[in-house]
Amino acid sequence: MSPKLTICIPSFNRGNAALNQVLYTLPLIQSDWEILVLDNCSSINLEGYHQIELLTKSEPRVRYIRHRENVGFAKNLLSCFTLANTPYIQINSDEDFSNPRGVRDAVATLAEFPQVGLIRGSIEAIAGMRPRNSASYPDQFLDAGRSALSEFSLTTNYLSGIIYNKNLLESLGVVRNFAVGVESNDTMIAVYPHMYLDILISALCKVITSSETVCFEGEEASYTPDIQSTAAAFPYTFSGRLEQIIGFRDAFRKVCGPDGLSDLSLLIHLYLRLVQKYCSLFRIDGFLYTARGLGLGPLQESLRHFLIAASEIDEFVPVRNMVHEMVQERFEICLPPKA
Known about the structure:
Strand content: 15-25%
Structural class: alpha/beta
Radius of gyration: 20 Å
Distance between the termini: 65 Å
CATH class of the largest domain: Alpha Beta
CATH architecture of the largest domain: Alpha-Beta Complex
Helix content: 40-55%
Largest sheet: 9 strands, mixed
CATH superfamily of the largest domain: Spore Coat Polysaccharide Biosynthesis Protein SpsA, Chain A
CATH topology of the largest domain: Spore Coat Polysaccharide Biosynthesis Protein SpsA, Chain A
């Protein structure tokens, strides 16, 4: 029997977490499912990976691949598509746990509607855990293009819980375009490759969100040991956030521009959503900037100017003044008055 679904677990330096997910999931999956652990050349917490590798010798449903060097988060995520041998895949962070019952229903839906590129299922905290990234999504069927981009992309930056129609994404060139983006060294794609992939898929494929739980979030594991280290980590710095804005803006231009959907009103809508997202992140990350001794007032003003400057693109020339006014209005709504 040919395998139908692969549960992919990209992992780095968290062997015990990956092992826990494998041991939890294995008794619950069907004979035509696989679990693929992609170890990004970890240097610590290796015992768990060793146990997974030993398990592969007696359990054909488990595969373990260790990269010869650290290829980065984005390339490790890409390997889920290039190394899985099944038409459907689910990707989970190593700290989380698949819910095979919900995933089984999602796979049946993808088989029934082969034009659907992905299903974003809901996430619950596993028993005994305090919810952090849990989310319940509405049951909705979104058409490719305007509907999927407007109502699905940018909704969450959480990796776990999506089931992908890998065969469809390969046939439409989405995986190939994703690989090109990953190789581009774009800062946004390096940090949020899964969100970039969501954008590429939404432009070409129907998308489903579902209230059915497909994943349980487990114990949070941070890559940084303390707040000072987190504050200095590039993705969370002010300059890192600014580079992410440009990366997402250009991703939306790629799919909405002349070679894509040719939809200026959609591009404006998505850019304004981007403004709202990063204004909100500015408020959330305020304690990190304070930890580095940065004044929030000057940063707030810098962000406002940056959001206006980031809208200085060719597509907005005919409506530039209107876009500037809308950005300013969105900025004022999202942020409190300057002190």
